[in-house]
Amino acid sequence: MNFNKFALLEAIKERRDAERISQAELSRRTNIPQSHISRIERGIVDVQLSTLMQISFALGCELRMIPKRHVDLVDRVIDRQPYETNDKPAYSLDDET
Amino acid sequence: MNFNKFALLEAIKERRDAERISQAELSRRTNIPQSHISRIERGIVDVQLSTLMQISFALGCELRMIPKRHVDLVDRVIDRQPYETNDKPAYSLDDET
DNA sequence: TGGATCAATATAGTATAATATATATTTTGT
DNA sequence: ACAAAATATATATTATACTATATTGATCCA
User: At B58, phi and psi to the nearest 5?
Assistant: First the structure.
């Protein structure tokens, strides 16, 4: 049993697009090869924490563990969820393993 | 150059302690060996995202990338930072690489 | 049409995360 | 002090992240 990491990986791409940073530029800022960034964003690799933090930092973000009871509020704050809808969980189970 | 992952790893231990879950119990819930959980919490290994997400889930949390301008607010919401002090960044650079 | 930019893909070598298992050490409760 | 529970350490093996590099396809535009 595994978890849907794509929400977080998509957040990377969203942030990168929002900041208009290419994978190559992100690569320059982090010293992570662009090819690796490509695979990370597509969920092909199971990225390590240090790598994820480098990317987050370069995108002006920090990682946090949010208790479930606060997730909705936090998501509204960081603008990842429209204010109205609340049906879908940001993470879901899948059978990928 | 690397980043201080300990803030996040400490958050794991804080949550685990708060929920009064032993490493062995967390191991049971996640199917991650207790020995590995021990090393993760102490920052000895560079944990992979899937592993971190399993742990987060078992502790009733989800991971989020928080834009820096919202970090203080989010930290107050999730109670990781005293309301008054604001000097220290939750992440800092170190030379560990 | 040719050059420049961006992204995706492939491969091989190295480093290290993760597992399984056992044992040692520390902490906690009585 | 003792036992039990919790946590840390050790070793060997397997799986895979990461790096470096090179190539390809697509798009844009001078």
Answer: -65, -20
pLDDT the model gives residue B92: 29
B-proximal residues of A, 36-95, CB under 8 Å: 46-50, 52-54, 56-57, 59-68, 70-71, 73-75, 77-78, 80, 90-91
The predicted model gives B50-77 an average pLDDT of 94
Q: Cβ distance A36 to A45 under 8 Å?
A: yes
Burial of B36 (0-12, 13-18, 19+ CB in 10 A): middle
What band does B59 get if pLDDT is binned at 50, 70 and 90? very high
This prediction's pTM? 0.82
Average pLDDT value for residue range B47-75: 94
**Helix or strand holding residue A38 (H, E):** helix A34-41
Asked if residues A27 and A34 have their Cβ atoms less than 8 Å apart, the reply is yes
Mean pLDDT of B71-76: 94
Q: Identify the H or E element spanning B16.
A: helix B6-18
How far is the C-alpha of B4 from the C-alpha of B6, rounded, in Å? Answer: 5
CA distance B9 to chain A (A): 10
A63 and B8 in contact (C-beta within 8 Å)?
A: yes
Size of interface A-B (CB pairs under 8 A): 127
